[in-house]
Amino acid sequence: MMTTAGFIVRMLLTLLTVFGTYNPSGYSYWHWIRMEDAGDWTLKLFAGTVIVFLLYTHVLATWRSMKLIGVTMVVISYVTAVWTLWDHDLLDLNDPTIVTLTLLSGVTLVLGMGFLWSLVRYRLSGQVDSQNVIPP
Question: Is residue 44 pLDDT above 60, yes or no?
Answer without folding.
Answer: yes
